[in-house]
Write a structure and sequence with these properties.
heterodimer, A: 407 residues, alpha/beta, 4-stranded antiparallel beta sheet, 14 helices, 12 strands, 20% strand, B: 357 residues, 6-stranded mixed beta sheet, 10 strands, globular
Chain lengths: 407, 357
């Protein structure tokens, strides 16, 4: 059963991505996670008898694949379904329809013992470092609970000593002290709590980790610590990440490939550099143009979208973005945007987009919305990295990649 | 002027009549069970008429408390304004009665908050809430106030304002609610608008709408703007001048170009370098080591010294003040000779830092 499902899974990748012949990827490895036509609806209950009167279409027919060892970034605004997608993929919620496999094994058909074994391979890191840790549990139990649940003859995690040792090992791996096991969550700062959440996920030795907005609640200086840590751990433990975030700069930094979601659909998917320099979906272009740039010399031509995101309970017909689309307006409101739903189609190596008119995107609009990085201001000393940043501050600050406080 | 203005302007010399708000040596403390938290510890700055200024820093640095002190919206106790003056158009706000202060709020200084849902009353319609403010401050009749509410909503780009005024806050989206907050704040034509993280709770496309609106309104009405945010991108796009706060103090000030392109203070520089930027792909991000100092146990010298990669002899001993610098644009011994210290300052030029979204 499992074997057959696995074979079927890898065999139908091509059809799932609607005929994109060349699925180019930076990693070049085989897909670890394959998602096909995933659907997740939440029922809306109403009326006197609390009958179902509709559906919130949180994720609506989404297909993509995540390669082994890559960071797949998923961006979109609140309510676009990106977190629902992550949680459904890990079976934290039942899917409405569709298929998903991890290393060829079907995720949604598993039950009982098989499901439990599967859960160990897929873990999640949550956004809220306060709400996701039980305040009444010491760290040893917070991290050890998962180990206890997954204990078997082979790993010996039933034994408290072995378990505690593993908890300490993973605390150390995420940059915390081994003797923190007896402490409680309130004794830690936000960044430290997020490290605990990461240790909890990694202690089970997963292959695939969903990072659901892991740095959104953190200050900039702490955010950079956690991003560095996540990349280090990926190398150390051979992890594959699905990185869900609304911050486009963070996603650009950490991801190898990126998918953009709008109202339950993936509207564009490409290698990170391709997506950020040659976006082809009008929504992606507007999204990138809206990100405020901390370089005051960068003057983006913002594309300000009109109105709000429509309700996912009643998405617009045809292309879901057509009600706010600036490109459609420019093209004189073509009919097929309203009548025909655009498929996610390949328009270049590894680049897929769900727009009928992607080829008609004006280059000058893209160039103004996503300007190139301006050259650094010319100033003496900028090009010469100093010998030691700490002992010779007058001669420059150690270069852009210098080890300024790299601890 | 007895106190040096910490906001230096190269554009035009600021005459006294030009100054709208002057905060002098403000100290706001909170008395809690474990001791005293010096949330704002000696902050001075000025805002000229029509000036747009950004107050940036990470959580807990005292930026919101500074704004709430100006508005006198803190509960006393546990809060205490231990010292300082807040001079608005020649009057010290801290010396006003509660009745007089109520007149200043809304009429002269208005504030918009981060969370538009909790700042609006859920059981009154949007129109009632704007009209209430207008009636209170401008002594208009109910009908006139209601019409003014409709006008205010139209001015912030809300379609069909005649229908929207009759709606309740829960019927509006987050971006729409923030527009209502801005409409309410502007309904009495304030001279200073304080916006405390106005777009932090919003999505990036909605944030773009609200920032455009704030800039547009500022252009149109000429009101001064104090924008409080942790997002350096928002600062770069919205305001002209910037104040950087760390642990209750202003550590650096200047124009957006000066501070963001060539920061002087090691904290500002560290902050800018920790933002993931286009050029950073594949490199490790810069990290400011350690954490913000414990508010009950501040370092003796510079608050930032324990985390600073450039700290040298005077930093652990002497507390740098931005007022002592010449020009007063940075609080750091790398630029100012430390009093009583035999070690001379290690002046270094402003150095460009590459940033980008």
């Amino acid at each position: 059963m499992t074997g057959a499902a696995g074979a079927g899974g890898s065999g139908s990748v091509g059809s799932a991505v609607s005929g994109s012949g060349s699925v180019g990827s930076a990693s070049g490895a085989e897909p670890l996670v394959v998602v096909e036509h995933l659907v997740k609806y939440y029922p809306i209950l109403g009326g006197l008898l609390r009958r179902k009167i509709g559906d919130v279409k949180a994720v609506d027919d989404v297909s993509f694949e995540i390669y082994r060892g890559e960071v797949f970034g998923l961006v979109g605004e609140s309510g676009c379904g990106k977190s629902t997608l992550g949680k459904t993929l890990l079976r934290l919620q039942p899917p409405t329809a569709g298929r998903a496999t991890i290393a060829g094994e079907d995720i949604f058909s598993k039950r009982g013992k098989e499901l439990k074994r599967l859960r160990r391979r897929m873990q999640i890191i949550f956004q809220d470092p306060i709400g996701s840790l039980n305040p009444r549990m010491p760290i040893s139990d917070i991290i050890g609970e998962g180990l206890l649940a997954q204990a078997d003859e082979e790993n010996g995690w039933k034994d408290r000593k072995i378990r505690d040792k593993r908890v300490e090992d993973y605390l150390e791996a995420v940059g915390l002290r081994r003797d923190y096991t007896r402490r409680y969550p309130h004794e830690f700062s936000g960044g430290q709590r997020q490290r605990i959440g990461i240790a909890r996920a990694l202690a089970l030795d997963p292959e695939f980790v969903v990072c659901d907005e892991p740095v959104s609640a953190l200050d900039v200086s702490i955010q950079s610590q956690i991003l560095n840590l996540l990349l280090d751990l990926r190398r150390e433990f051979n992890l594959t990440y699905l990185f869900i975030a609304h911050n486009l700069s963070v996603v650009q930094y950490i991801s190898d490939r990126v998918g953009v979601m709008y109202l339950g659909k993936i509207v564009e998917l490409a290698d990170v550099n391709e997506l950020y320099t040659r976006p082809r979906h009008p929504y992606t272009i507007a999204l990138l143009s809206a990100v405020p740039d901390p370089d005051p010399r960068v003057r983006k031509k913002r594309i300000v979208l009109k109105g709000d995101v429509p309700s996912p309970a009643a998405p617009p017909p045809g292309c879901r973005f057509h009600t706010r689309c600036w490109l459609r307006e420019r093209l004189g409101n073509p009919e097929n945007c309203v009548t025909e739903e655009p498929p996610l189609r390949a328009i270049g190596p590894g680049h897929r987009v769900a727009c009928h008119w992607a080829e008609a995107v004006p280059e000058d609009v893209v160039a103004a919305a996503v300007p190139a990085v301006p050259p650094p201001p010319v100033q003496a000393g900028a090009a010469s990295p100093s010998v030691s940043a700490v002992s010779a501050p007058a001669s420059g600050l150690g270069g852009p990649s210098g080890g300024v406080g790299a601890g | 002027m007895t106190v040096p203005a910490t906001v230096t302007s190269s554009a035009r010399p600021a005459g006294d009549s030009d100054i709208l708000l002057e905060v002098r040596d403000l100290r706001t403390y909170f008395h809690v069970l474990d001791g005293t938290v010096k949330a704002v510890d000696g902050v001075s700055f000025t805002i000229r008429r029509g000036q747009t200024i950004g107050l940036v820093g990470e959580s807990g640095c005292g930026k919101s408390v500074t704004a709430l002190s100006i508005m006198r919206l803190l509960d006393i106790p546990p809060a205490e304004i231990a010292s300082g003056e807040i001079i608005f158009e020649g009057r010290d706000l801290l010396a006003l009665s509660e009745e007089e202060m109520r007149h200043v709020r809304g009429n002269d200084i208005a504030m918009i908050f981060q969370e538009p849902m909790t700042s609006l009353n859920p059981v009154y319609t949007v129109g009632d809430q704007i009209a209430e403010a207008v009636m209170l401050h401008q002594r208009l009749s109910k009908k006139e106030a209601w019409n003014k509410a409709i006008e205010a909503l139209r001015a912030v780009g809300i379609n069909n304002p005649e229908r929207r005024v009759k709606q309740y806050p829960h019927e509006l989206s987050g971006g729409m609610r923030q527009r209502v907050m801005i409409a309410m704040a502007l309904s009495c034509d304030p001279k200073l608008l304080i916006a405390d993280e106005p777009t932090t709770a919003l999505d990036v496309t909605i944030q773009a709408q609200i920032l455009e609106l704030i800039k547009d309104v500022q252009d149109r009405t000429g009101t001064a703007l104090m924008l409080i945010t942790h997002d350096l991108g928002v600062v770069a796009e919205t305001v002209h001048d910037v104040l950087v706060m760390y642990a209750g103090r202003i550590v650096e000030t200047g124009t957006v170009e000066d501070v963001l392109l060539a920061p002087k203070h090691p904290y500002t520089e560290g902050l800018l370098r920790s933002i993931p930027s286009r050029g950073m792909k594949g490199q490790r991000l810069n990290v400011i080591k350690g954490t913000v100092p414990n508010p009950f146990n501040m370092p003796k010298g510079c608050n930032f010294a324990p985390r600073c990669p450039y700290a040298f002899e005077p930093c652990a001993e002497y507390d740098p003040r931005i007022e002592d610098a010449n020009p007063p644009d940075v609080a750091c011994w790398l630029y100012t000779p430390a009093p009583g210290s035999p070690v001379p300052p290690r002046v270094r030029p402003r150095r460009p830092v590459e940033v980008g979204a």
